[in-house]
Amino acid sequence: MKVIAKGLLGVLFGLLLCAVAVIRYDGPVTCDGVSMGENDTCITIGHDEEARSYEEQAAMQKRWSIIVGTIGGLIAIGFCVATVNAAREQRRRTKVLRS
After folding, report:
1. Residues 6+ apart with CB under 8 A from 82
2. Where are the transmembrane segments (predicted)?
């Protein structure tokens, strides 16, 4: 039963990632959590300084949303398959014990 519960949590986590990706895909374009306007520039400072226009930032945000959504979908599918297999195995063991 614990394996099934963990599997369901994994499925929910994957679906949550998918939901976040969908929301971010068409959401407002942001730079470090701040909404950007059409003529704004996003400057990131870290190990390499980078400046991106509104259009570049929007494209990057959409690209990351697709990546996160794909990963979330794969996680959900993987945990779903593993959970179904665990449930089948548990049912098989129960039938063997009853026999």
Report:
1. 7, 10
2. 64-87
- CB-count exposure of residue 7 (10 Å: 0-12, 13-18, 19+): buried
Kindly report the pTM of this predicted structure: 0.79
Q: What is the 3 state secondary structure string of the chain?
A: CHHHHHHHHHHHHHHHHHHHHHHHHCCCCEECCEECCCCCEEEECCCCCEEEEHHHHHHHHHHHHHHHHHHHHHHHHHHHHHHHHHHHHHHHHHHHHHC
Name the phi and psi angles at 33, rounded to 5.
85, 0
